[in-house]
Design brief:
There is one protein chain. The protein is α/β, with parallel strands linked by helices and 214 residues long. The chain is built from six helices and six strands. Strand 1 and strand 2 form a beta hairpin.
Length: 214
């Protein structure tokens, strides 16, 4: 009987001890990065794709224009370094004068259009007596600084004998007659007064009329 009672007590104690709740440690949290390093098989978290780089279509800040062309002009007359000058396309008469070292003292530039755009192969003659003006509208030829230059007319009221000699058909004698008439009559009030100068007939007057002004 005593052995039976002891065995029953042991069974009862074992039953009650197995029925008691036991504290269980919570499992460690495994992050996505740790799972990747450990080669885990867990489902990866969703990732938001970034923008895909495309071709650069924005404005470029660098200068990529092709180099400008060049023109060649001949600068002669009263400049410090006369001769052939190589200039960028679109250069003007003033640029040619600077490339030639500038004009010399005493050069007459009052009637020179220094803002005119140059063309390839032309000549810029600075204050050269007797230089012929280019054909009108060609854009090439001589460009004479002074009253006898292209796109300008000779002033009958201020021109010297040398400047008048640059006109077609006007020699030293006729040029002096033009100056003498100006002195005697106090200048020219109109171009038509050239008809009254000794040595100028109708044909010569017709040639000179578009080239002079009072």
């Amino acid at each position: 009987m005593a052995v039976v009672l002891i065995g029953a007590a042991v069974l009862a104690a074992t039953h009650f001890s197995s029925a008691r709740p036991e504290a269980v440690r919570a499992p460690d949290r495994v992050t996505e990065a740790a799972a990747v390093r450990a080669g885990g098989t867990g489902a990866p978290s969703a990732r938001i794709p970034g923008p895909t780089p495309g071709p650069d279509t924005g404005p470029r800040t660098g200068t990529e224009s092709e180099p400008r062309g060049q023109i060649v002009v001949d600068v002669s007359g009263k400049v410090r370094r006369p001769g052939i000058q190589h200039l960028p396309s679109g250069s003007r008469v003033a640029d040619a004068l600077r490339a030639a070292g500038g004009v010399r003292a005493g050069a007459d530039l009052t009637s020179l259009n220094r803002a005119r755009v140059l063309t390839d192969g032309e000549q810029v003659a600075v204050d050269v007596p007797g230089a012929l003006p280019p054909a009108v509208g060609t854009g090439t030829g001589g460009s004479v600084a002074g009253p006898a230059g292209p796109a300008t007319t000779v002033s009958l009221g201020t021109a010297t004998v040398e400047q008048l000699e640059t006109l077609p058909g006007v020699g030293p004698v006729l040029a002096q007659h033009i100056v003498d008439y100006r002195t005697e009559h106090g200048g020219y009030r109109s171009v038509d007064e050239l008809r009254e100068v000794n040595g100028i007939g109708d044909r010569r007057f017709a040639d000179l009329r578009p080239l002079v002004r009072p």
